[in-house]
């Protein structure tokens, strides 16, 4: 059915879906340039925008705009930048009552140089001062922040405080999602609490020293027994998800070498389809040579094929993607019914590439381009109905 005749898909607002996020917020100074400067160059910007940023700030903005209840734990100073950060988050419906405001110091800020030629961005971050420490979050505030939370998201910054929150979340059996961009102090400890991990393309192999991404994902599931799934984002190449399956009898499952299985899945992609799709392997025993075997399923999610002329930059695309993952985890039953999927978790892999396209503003993923629920309705109407 064409988009011109398709009825609009009504997206119900998820009930009792509370996301608590802990990590960095900042003010971003986004300077677009014709091309990245050489040493000692003097160049001019083609545009300049100042707005809120930071991984957890962007991801929670995305979750809130999709209809989840979002709460944030972070720290800013009582300066103009800190007040701007608070005002922008609150305007998007993110609850900031657990965000610590210091009377002195400076709020975090980031210079983002957007290269219009290569469609890349370079970030130069200045952390806030004084930094957040566990003592900034009282026991009563911690319990209040977690009250009713259905998932806790960490961007792997502020790790000392993050570990305190993760320990309490685990005690209360609240699922944890960790954003693993790169190796950081305290990340190994934080990952032991993770039920879900979203990581950058390079992280799995860097962390596990496995020879390939698929074998690294197997290694991660073996090393992290609480992990239900791990997603690795691959930019224009979409994403790969490895989901652990525990309700099957291993002896009855076929065994596949995981790298070979991924190549089979890639061969099943329909290259003529521009919209995001996913291709799933059967539930099987997935073997990584020299590493081990897990029972699970491998999924390949494709990305929207965006004309180069429409791509502005990728600032915050990963954060918008995580916002889609948070929504997909909460509302996969509804999305699943629309997409006629039989496996509950598969919808996350399907929804996330679509969510990344939807939330990324066609390649321009600054916070102002993170979309609202209405865009999700349009996306589902055009591509599903």
From TrEMBL:
GO terms of molecular function: kinase activity
Pfam family, one: PfkB
Entry keyword Transferase: yes
Organism whose genome encodes this protein: Cucurbita maxima (Pumpkin)
Transferase recorded as keyword: yes
Highest taxon listed in the record's lineage: Eukaryota
Name of the protein this chain belongs to: Ribokinase-like isoform X3
Carbohydrate kinase PfkB domain residues: 22-243
TM annotation in the entry: none
Alphabetically ordered keywords of this record: Kinase, Transferase
Family: Belongs to the carbohydrate kinase PfkB family.
InterPro entries linked: Carboh/pur_kinase_PfkB_CS (IPR002173), Ketohexokinase-related (IPR052562), PfkB_dom (IPR011611), Ribo/fructo_kinase (IPR002139), Ribokinase-like (IPR029056)
């Amino acid at each position: 059915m064409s988009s011109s005749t398709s009825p609009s898909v009504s997206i119900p607002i998820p009930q009792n879906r509370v996301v608590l996020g802990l990590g960095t917020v900042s003010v971003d100074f986004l300077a677009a340039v014709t091309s990245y400067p050489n040493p000692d160059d003097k160049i001019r910007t083609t545009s300049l925008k100042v707005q809120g940023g930071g991984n957890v700030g962007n991801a929670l903005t995305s979750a809130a705009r999709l209809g989840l209840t979002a709460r944030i734990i972070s720290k800013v100073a009582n300066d103009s930048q800190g007040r701007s950060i608070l005002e922008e988050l609150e305007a998007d419906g993110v609850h900031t009552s657990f965000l610590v405001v210091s009377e002195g110091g400076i709020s975090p800020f980031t210079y983002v140089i957007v290269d219009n030629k290569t469609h890349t961005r370079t970030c130069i971050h200045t952390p806030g001062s004084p930094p957040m420490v566990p003592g900034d979050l009282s026991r009563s505030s911690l319990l209040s922040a977690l009250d009713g939370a259905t998932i806790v998201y960490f961007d792997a910054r502020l790790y000392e405080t993050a570990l305190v929150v993760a320990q309490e979340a685990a005690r209360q059996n609240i699922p944890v999602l960790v954003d693993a961009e790169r190796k950081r102090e305290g990340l190994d400890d934080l990952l032991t609490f993770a039920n879900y991990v979203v990581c950058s393309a390079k992280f799995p192999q860097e962390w596990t020293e496995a020879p390939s991404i698929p074998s690294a994902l197997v290694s991660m599931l073996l090393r992290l027994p609480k992990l239900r799934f791990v997603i690795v984002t691959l930019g224009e190449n979409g994403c790969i998800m490895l989901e652990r399956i525990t309700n099957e009898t291993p002896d009855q499952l076929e065994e596949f070498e995981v790298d070979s299985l991924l190549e089979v899945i890639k061969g099943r992609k329909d290259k003529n389809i521009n919209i995001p799709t996913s291709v799933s392997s059967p539930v099987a025993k997935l073997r990584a040579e020299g590493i081990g075997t897990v029972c699970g399923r491998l999924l390949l999610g494709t990305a929207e094929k965006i004309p180069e002329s429409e791509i502005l930059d990728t600032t915050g695309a990963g954060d918008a993607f995580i916002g889609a993952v948070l929504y997909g985890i909460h509302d996969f039953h509804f999305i699943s019914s629309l997409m006629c999927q039989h496996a509950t978790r598969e919808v996350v892999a399907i929804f996330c590439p679509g969510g990344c396209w939807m939330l990324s503003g066609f390649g321009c993923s600054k916070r102002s381009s993170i979309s609202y629920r209405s865009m999700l309705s349009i996306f589902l109407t055009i591509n599903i109905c």
